[in-house]
Every structure is written in C-alpha cells, then in structure tokens.
Backbone:
C-alpha cells in the first residue's frame, strides 16, 4: 500500500499533533533539521514536489515510537494490523489423548481451531477456551487462556497442569519441592491441590486471557 504526496505530509502533521509536538520539535526529536517539515520545504526551487526521504521517515517513526501501520492510519489510510493466528482448543478436550505431546505442546489436528491473538510474541503459544463456571470469578465461560509451554513458572503464576490420570486443571502455582507440587484453586469453593511431581505429565504457564 502506497501513500500519496499529500497523505505523507498529512501523516507527519497528524503525528506531530498526536505526540503534542510542533513539526519543528518533532524534526529535532528525530535528529533532523528543525525546518525539515516546514511547508516552505515541500516544494523545490524548480517547483517540483519534495518528498521526505526514507531515512527521515524512519528516524521520525523511531523517535516517536510509531509503527508504519499507525502512521498510515494517521495519513488517512485504513491499514489492518497484521494478524497473529494461534491454535485454539476447548479446555474440556485438553485431557484427552492425542491433543498434546509429553511436553505440553499441541498435536494439531482437525479438532483444533484457531483464534487471532493481538500481539506478536517471541515464543510459541496456543489458546484453551474455558467452558462452564468452575473457575469463576477469575475465568469465565468463553474466556480464552493463552498458554506458553516454554515460559518459566514462578509462584503466583496461573498454570495448566495435566496429570497422569488424564485430568487437566487450571490452578495458581504455589510451590514445588522434591516430593510435591502445591496448586491453589482459582474458585474459593474448590479445594487446593497437592500433587506428586511423578503425577504430573506437563505444566504450562498461562500468560494472557482474552475475554
């Protein structure tokens, strides 16, 4: 998608206004000559239109912490944000055989769906959709739990745990020792759980919830 001459300059004007800066102040912030974006500089002495250089644009976007997509919208373009699609499975199915490997990574099949995740992460994730009210008030029916199997787990983190008995539970991690793993229930009406490490197939951290 390309921006016209007028859209480029409109985008710079709108960007400066959005950041509470004058055009001169924004140019200085980017390490450019303060007059770089003045209207008098937009037409050359020969009467031809002058465009901001790619280098100048890159400096401005970096200095104002603005993405290309955000700038294009400021310039009047409707530019969709890139979509990050991740695997989705109903939490009720997660305990069945064939959906995960021994490390808690999805084994994708036709039973898996997909959902858009609003952020791009430097790690692989998947989503489990909550059904029922057993985890209220923390998680509700329809919430999508974003799970990262390779994230470090610390006290207070919410985790998905699969046991050797085939049960999958969502709890708050409390403590791990040589002989036991302590998990706190999210629903006050449910009892906390203490497991032997040998009873756990895998445990993965919940890093986000989409409600």
Residues:
């Amino acid at each position: 998608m390309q921006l016209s001459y007028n859209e480029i300059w409109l985008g710079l004007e709108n960007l400066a206004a959005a950041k509470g800066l004058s055009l001169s102040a924004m140019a200085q912030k980017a390490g450019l000559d303060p007059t770089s974006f003045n209207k008098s500089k937009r037409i050359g002495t020969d009467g031809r239109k002058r465009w901001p250089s790619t280098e100048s644009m890159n400096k401005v976007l970096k200095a104002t912490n603005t993405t290309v997509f955000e700038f294009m919208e400021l310039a009047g373009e409707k530019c969709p944000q890139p979509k990050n699609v991740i695997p989705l499975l109903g939490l009720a199915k997660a305990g069945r055989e064939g959906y995960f490997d021994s490390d808690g990574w999805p084994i994708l099949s036709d039973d898996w769906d997909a959902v858009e995740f609003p952020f791009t992460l430097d790690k692989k994730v998947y989503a489990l959709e909550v059904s029922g009210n057993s985890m209220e008030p923390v998680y509700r029916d329809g919430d999508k739990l974003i799970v990262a199997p390779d994230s470090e787990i610390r006290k207070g983190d919410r985790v998905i745990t699969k046991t050797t008995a085939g049960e999958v539970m969502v709890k708050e991690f409390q403590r791990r020792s040589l002989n036991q793993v302590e998990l706190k229930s999210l629903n006050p009406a449910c009892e906390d759980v203490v497991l032997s490490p040998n009873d756990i197939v895998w445990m993965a951290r919940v890093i986000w919830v989409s409600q």
User: Anything to note?
Assistant: The two ends are 32 Å apart (CA to CA). The chain has a mean pLDDT of 89. The first strand starts at residue 84 and ends at 90.
